[in-house]
Structures are given as C-alpha cells and as structure tokens.
Design the sequence.
C-alpha cells in the first residue's frame, strides 16, 4: 500500500520515524505540506518524494493520511475520495460539520473509497460505540492541558471553555478533535469542558458515559509531542496502529 502524508508536522514526524523500514506492506512515500521544507525533510529521512502540488501525490497513492488541519480536510478530502483513494483523517473536528461529513460519505460510497478516523488522543471510543447500540444518557469530556499546550501562561487553573463539542471544535480547531471523535462515535453533541491547568504536565482527557449498558469513566494522561505540545503522542500512535491494521485480517476491538 502506497501512502501519502498531507501535513508534515508533529504527528507525521512520529509516524514516519516509526515506519523507517517498510512494514506490513505499507510504504509511506509521498509528502505534501504548504511549507515545502517540512515535506522535504520527511522525504529526505524516509527516502520519499516531496510534492509541491497535492494532486501529484494523490494520483500515485492508495491512501492519504491527513495530519494537517481541519481546513485541509475541507479543501482536499472530497477530491481524494473522488479519485477512489482512501483517507485517514486526524483533524476530526472538521467532520463535526454534518453537511461535509455526509458529502464525504456519499462520495466515498460512490467511488468505492474509505474514510478512517482513528481514536487519536482519547481512549474509550470502542466502549462508546458499543454503548450507542443502547440509549446513552450522558457523555462528558473534561480536557486539562498545561498552559503551554494551549499557548497560555496561566499560574492558576482557568476554565477556557464549557459547552457543546460542535462549538468547541470551532473555537479551538486544533486542540479538541477528541471531542469530535467522541461525538461522532455516539452520534451526540457531547458536553465539553476545557481547562488550562498549570498543575498538570500532560494532556489529560476524562470521559464519563452513562447509558443503558451502565457507565464508564476513562482518564488518559498523554505525553505531549515534543514539537507540538498541543498534540499528544497517543494520537500519532493511534494513526500508526490503524495504518498497520489496514493490511491485517484480524481486527481486535469494536
Ligand atoms: N484526532 C486527534 O485526537 C488529534 C488530532 N490532532 C490534529 O491533527 C492535525 C495534525 O496535528 P500536528 O501534527 O500536531 O500538527 P502540526 O501543526 O505539528 O503539523 C501540521 C502540519 O500541517 C501543515 N498544514 C496545515 N494546514 C495545511 C494545509 N491546508 N495544507 C498543507 N499543509 C498544511 C503545517 O504546515 C504543518 O506542517 C491537527 O489538525 C491537529 O489538531 C492533533 C492531536 C490529536
Ligand atoms: O492531542 C490531544 O491530547 C488532543 C488534541 O490536541 C485534540 O484533540 O486536538
């Protein structure tokens, strides 16, 4: 499987460094970023090809791994799917827009392509998907990040946001994709609180779900990526695991 990466920042760097040797028949070969130097850097370390025009990548790959921004999903995903290519979307916040999501699903169905959205920086999506088979009464997400992860310098705790996931992803498009992942997994606009917390040094996500199945609570304490403290290592790891699983015949988990 030939893979192209759209967005050559923190997540892409972790992915490429994990795939330096070809694994599971996956060859990450093409790189596109609107900062060509970033694409060239990844191409150099992986013996791949950096492209100036995204079409020069899409035409040659089986799958595009988006790790850029919600705007890049709006801009490029439709065309990727129309060309019959699969896409892994990291900027899941973009998919909270139901119109865009439905359009992408329609085009994917028509062109026999697939959209994958990894669980990213959060745990519990397996459980919430299963729980959504019954009635779900409550889903709360509380995200705590150190000030530097949110570009702040607080000395005291501050609630930055409290409200629905749909608004959260508009206000903080590169910080709370996890809220979109949760919402889409259970088809509900979940309640979100984002807290700037100078007492934590990790990106912490707590989820509480209650429904017909009973209840569960998860807490993820994520180490931030070195080059982008907003983003947790687990998000990149989840993309790697998903990518590897695409060529496997045994699927574990929901
Ligand atoms: N699903 C999840 O749980 C998570 C998702 N994310 C999202 O994944 C995406 C990537 O995250 P990082 O690697 O940490 O970001 P980053 O900022 O380190 O890297 C993004 C790269 O994409 C490039 N880029 C941005 N917009 C572009 C466009 N329209 N066209 C071409 N290149 C573009 C930038 O130049 C940059 O090199 C972000 O949208 C982030 O919010 C991040 C963490 C968790
Ligand atoms: O990486 C994280 O911990 C969460 C994050 O930035 C996001 O959901 O966009």
Sequence:
């Amino acid at each position: 499987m030939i893979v192209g990466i759209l967005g050559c920042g923190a997540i892409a760097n972790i992915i490429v460094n994990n795939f330096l040797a070809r694994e599971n028949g996956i060859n990450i070969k093409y790189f596109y970023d609107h900062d060509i130097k970033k694409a060239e850097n990844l191409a150099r370390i992986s013996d791949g090809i950096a492209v100036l025009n995204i079409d020069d990548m899409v035409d040659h790959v089986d799958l595009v791994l988006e790790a850029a921004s919600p705007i890049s999903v709006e801009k490029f995903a439709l065309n990727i799917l129309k060309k019959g290519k699969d896409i892994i979307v990291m900027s899941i916040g973009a998919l909270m827009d139901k119109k865009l999501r439905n359009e992408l699903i329609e085009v994917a169905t028509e062109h026999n392509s697939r959209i994958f959205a990894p669980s990213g920086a959060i745990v519990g999506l397996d459980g919430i998907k299963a729980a959504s088979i019954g009635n779900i009464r409550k889903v709360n997400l509380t995200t705590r990040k150190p000030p530097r992860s949110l570009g702040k310098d607080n000395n005291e705790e501050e609630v930055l946001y409290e409200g629905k996931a749909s608004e959260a992803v508009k206000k903080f498009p590169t910080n709370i994709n996890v809220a979109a992942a949760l919402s889409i997994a259970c088809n509900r606009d979940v309640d979100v609180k984002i807290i700037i917390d100078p007492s934590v040094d990790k990106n912490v996500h707590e989820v509480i779900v209650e429904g017909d199945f009973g209840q569960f609570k998860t807490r993820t304490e994520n180490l931030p990526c070195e080059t982008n403290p907003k983003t947790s290592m687990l998000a990149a790891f989840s993309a790697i695991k998903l990518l590897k699983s695409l060529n496997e015949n045994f699927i574990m988990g929901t």
Summary: The chain has two domains: 2-120+234-246, 125-227. Residues 121, 175-178, 203, 222, 230-232, 235 surround oxaloacetate ion (ligand 2) (CB under 6 Å). The mean pLDDT is 95. The first strand starts at residue 2 and ends at 6.
